[in-house]
Amino acid sequence: MMKEVVEKVITKEEYDRLMVEILNLMNKGEANLSVSELNEIKEMALLAQAYEREHYYPSHLR
Questions:
Q1: How many domains does one find in the chain?
Q2: Looking at the domain assignment, is residue 48 inside a domain?
Q3: What is the per-residue DSSP string for the chain?
Q4: Are 53 and 46 in contact (CB under 8 A)?
Q5: Which is nearest to 51 in space by CA: 3, 1, 6?
Q6: Distance from C-alpha of 62 to C-alpha of 57, rounded to nearest angstrom
Q7: What are the pLDDT digits (tens) for 1-48?
Q8: Could you tell me if residue 43 is inside a domain?
Q9: Domain range for residue 22?
């Protein structure tokens, strides 16, 4: 599987909102999500992962 590159820089506030949105969608349950919602989760998760990598990972793991 090819790793996708996320280049958009997000703020802490955007990250916090993303996490709430992801949680809300996940609480619906995978079987209850549309294809569009599944794609949204994937995009939001990639943005959140990029933020976490930049702000929480040790520099040698970024």
A1: 1
A2: yes
A3: -PPPP------HHHHHHHHHHHHHHHHH-GGG--HHHHHHHHHHHHHHHHHHHHHHS-GGG-
A4: no
A5: 6
A6: 6
A7: 345 555 677 899 999 999 999 999 999 999 999 999 999 999 999 999
A8: yes
A9: 12-61
